[in-house]
Structures are given as C-alpha cells and as structure tokens.
Amino acid sequence: MTRSLPNTLSPLESEEDATLSSSDSLEDEFSHVTKFEMSDFKIRNRVSIGLGGRGDEIVFEAMVTDPHSPLYKTRVVLRQLISARAKRRGRRAIEVLKRLARRKLMYHSYSMQVHGYISSSMIDENSPFTLVHGHHGSSSLRHWLQQSDWLPTLEATLSLDQESVRRVGDDTIGGPAISRQLRLIRILMRDLLIGVNYVHSHGLAHTELRLENLHISAVDKHIKVGILGNAADFNEADPEDITSDDNMDRRRMMIAFDMRCVGFIMAKMVLRELMDPMIFAKFKAFLTKGNDPSCLREFLLHAVNRNSSAGNFGLQILDRNWGAGWHLLSLLLAPKPLDRISCLNALRHPFLCGPKWRVTPSIDLIRWSLGSTTVRIAEEYIYGQQQRSRLAHFVELMEMLNPYPKPKHWLGLLPGKWRLLYCTGRHIGLTLRQPSVRVLIGEAYLSVSKVSKPNTTFSAVSHISFTVMAGQDWAHDKSGVGGKLQVNSFYRLRAGRRLYLKEETTTSIFPLATPDAQASVLKRISSKKWRKAIPINEVPSSLSVAKLVSSEIDVMMSLNEPLSGNMEVAQKALQEVRTQIPPEMFDLSKIVCGTYVDSRLLVLRSVNGSALVFTRCTNDS
Known about the structure:
- This protein is α+β, with helices and mostly antiparallel strands.
- It has helices at 11-29, 84-100, 104-110, 141-145, 150-158, 162-166, 177-200, 244-270, 277-288, 296-303, 313-332, 343-347, 363-379, 385-400, 407-413, 517-525, 528-531, 567-580, 583-586; strands spanning 34-35, 41-43, 57-64, 75-81, 114-119, 129-134, 204-205, 214-216, 223-225, 232-233, 416-423, 438-450, 457-469, 481-499, 542-550, 554-559, 591-597, 601-606, 611-617.
- It is 37% helix and 21% strand.
- Helix 7 (177-200) runs antiparallel to helix 8 (244-270), helix 8 packs antiparallel against helix 11 (313-332) and helix 14 (385-400) packs across helix 16.
- Keywords: Plastid, Transit peptide.
C-alpha cells in the first residue's frame, strides 16, 4: 500500500519563498519606473555643486549609454543612498511618482523627474540603492541667487521675452533693475506656487521646500520642485481610528507647513540680505518668538544694513503697489497655520499679478494698502500742505474701515510697543527758530501693557529720546548729550462713538486737519474703483471708537553727563522737547479715544481732534 506524502515545505524553503514573493511585490510596486544596471551609464568625472546632497548621499552625473533605453544619450543624476533613512527617502520618491505622473504635462513641467533606480535587492537593507532622476540644470535656486550677476544670468536662462512676461500680467521687458527683479520674482514665485499646488492636489505635502531643492530648467524655463523623498500623505492615518474632520485638520496643517516654507523662499528671493545665515537666523527668531509677520517691515528696517551690496532693492520691491509684497509675505508666514494663504489665493494676490491683470482687492488688502501708503508718506518727512492733506485723507479712510471698532477687540491688540510715526497736529522743528537750547528728537514710543485687575485698565508709558546739541555747528554736527523723557499714566477702556459735526459754520470736524478731508474721502469711496470693495455711500454721522479715560500723569526726565546736574539746562531742554513733540505724548490725558487698530498700526485721537499714527514695533526692532 502506497501512502502519499503531505505537500509541505521545510521552514527554510518557506522563508525563502516568502522573501522572493516580497521582493516580487516590491518590484511590482516600482513597475512604473525603470530598473537600471550600472552598466547602462557612463559616469562623468565631475559633479555640479548645485546637485550637492545630504551627508548620507553620494551624487554622480552620468549619461545613459544603453541604445535600447528611451533615455539614450540623456544626462541624468545618480543619487547613491547610503543610510537606511536615505534609502527610505528614495523608495518614497518612487512611490509618490505613481500619483504625480497621472498628469504628465504638469509632472514634466513642475516636478523633478524620477526615471528609476539601481538595486540588486529590494528587500535587503544593506543592499546598495541608487536613485536615477533628471538633470535640470547644474545649480539650485540658492546657487543662482548667490551669484553676483544673478539677475542678468537668470534672465538669460529663462530667455525672457514678450511672451514669457505675459504669463505674469506684464507687457514689458528690461527697464530699471528693481522692475526687472520684481518681474523675475513674479515668474519664479508663480511657477513655484503652481508646482506646490500640483503636489497638494494629489493629496501630498512636500515638507522639504527649500532653495536647495528647487532647480530651474533651461529647456522648458520652469522651476522643478525637488524630489519628494519625505512627502507626506494628507490621509495617512487609519480611517477607522480617526474622523474625517481630523483628516481635514491634518490636511490644512500640512498645507500650512508647506506655505510657510514658500514664505521663507520668497523672503530670500526678494531680500537677498537674508541669504546671510546670521541675518536669516535673526529673521527666523523674530517669527519664532511669536511676533506678528505684519510687523516684519519695522523689524527689517533695523535688521538689514541699508548700505548693503543688495542696494535695498528688496525693501523697495515689497513697498511697491502699496505694500502688497509685505501683505503676501505676512499671509505666507502667519503665526496661526489656518490663517496662511493657499497656493491658489496666492496666485491671485496683486503682488504676483502684473499691471495688465485687473485684480479686485479684498477689504483687508485695501486696509493694508492705506496703512502702507500712510507709512511711506510719513517716512519721507516732507510735511508740506500736499503731504499733510494726503495723510489726513488716508487716516480718515482707515478710520472708516477700522476692522476692530469694539473695545473687546482692543483688549488684545492695544498692548505692545508703538512707535510714533506722524501727528496731524502742528510740527515745530529747529530750522526757523533760535531756541536757547537746541534739542534733536530721536524716537518717541508709547508702551501699553494690561493691568491685571480690572481687565479694561491699561498702563501707558511715553518714552522720548533726545539729544541736547551744545555746539554752534548743530546743522552739520548732530552730536551732543543724550537724554530721556518718560511719562506714565493709566487708561480705562470704554465703548464710545465719535460724532461727525455737519454744521456749515464748522470748517472741519478736526481744526488741525485739512478743510476738505471729508469731501475728499467721500469722493474717493464713491468712485467706481472703490465702490465694489467699500459699501459706503456717504460719510457716516458717527463711528464706534474705543474711549480712553486717563488718570493722572507722572513725568520723569534724565540727562547724561556732563549736563545731569545742570538744572537750568534741564529745564530749557524739557521746554524745547515739549515744543517739538506732539503735546499728547507729554500729557497723555489729552488722548481721548482710539479710532483704528490692527496688528501693525494704531490711530489715537486727542481732545483737539488731531490724530496720532503709531506703528507697532518689537523689542527686536
């Protein structure tokens, strides 16, 4: 009698078959790319610096020599991955390619192309693994920007012509260096945002967007978003353990992380001073400390050397178009992830749209533009009648568009350090007078802090620095003895309304403002351009304001040596300081209400109707 043996395998044979099947399954997952052999390439004897990888990577430039390959005689990059972590990045880059390559036109235009890999075993972690990807230029975007002649070089690489500039809403080429740089930044930023949005639309976050990972192809003139070795899935979590709402939150957070990286890239492209690691570290520390990005301009005016080799072109570019560049930068770097702008909305932002594209501004952007224009006019320090009329006009518009009229909003926005920028009241300087003591005013700050109890009480401290110039040649020599004036007071915050007087006998609601300020405001908001954004048909009879009820004031003044003991000079210096500064900064009880506040600007009105405009600054400023 013959017995049949059971069809069983030994443990060793079973383990071998499992290994083979696992290897086959991995190769099936990578079937959308080519498995190369090292003999398919001719290694070049040099490597471009712009292709430099990490410490666990070895990079080669090569030419495909296999005549049967569709990449025959194509220049590629071989990235040999050493550590286990690097190999995981390489395999991840191949995995996500299956999703991205569905839209071939977008993939070839905006993503670095992964052609395949070289590996003897897909299972063994110790087996060498080399990623084969496209060669899109010898330099990363960082290396482009570090060149002294980067602007004409990039223009030549992109072959800018009438057709290429039309892509960003422009119709000119050449021109001043600032216009050329702005045009180029628009082209690069729009390309980058389109590429990042392409990745996001496939459920992926790049997570490693840096200048080093961006390359510009001289063939199709597009930015290539780097290898997605660390790409993260929006819905990677187990659906059974996490709700769909959590998946949406994860998606928003990951997109926000990428957008912050885009903000850093834009900052370095525009402000080339940030290519200096030390200055960029200060820039990043400013944001890490929780400072609002809307105050970046105030910070960078002090942090960036005004005599730098970059010529301060970056500051001028961001100031153009009523400060639109600063607005976009603040939205990309917003402290709250959910407040950051998306790729599609960034592409519609006026900073990235040329003059030929009509963009309807949001009410938030209009407020920003009014504030930026007010700051720029005030910084010119030319207070003729025309400038004063324009400043009064813009302050009136800002007050009508105040986003936070209720006192409860002021509880969080009012505390901080505010620099006095402009006052619509009188301006008395040194030029046309012969004072007994000549004093040069430095900076004037108003520091507001919340008192613990009650919650609506604030401590306000006015800081004024000045220099007593003793020499006769004061017009040319501004050196002298330094001094400080400090005024302390307390405010209680209350709800109030500001009434507009309409009697014909009244020449102006504010005696120190221009007589036609209201008429000018009404004419502006009634125009076709503004009517769509501002639903105001006439100047309102009253506006909600934050009423400020002050207490007694305490004044302190100090003078440095050798005038610290000279009482007569101190009295004359104090009188001269009071003559030059707005009286509201010396007697804080004259400030009666706040009419405008946001994250960067503050407008306070005094008892005589004049307006004090402040800009928020930080201790880093």
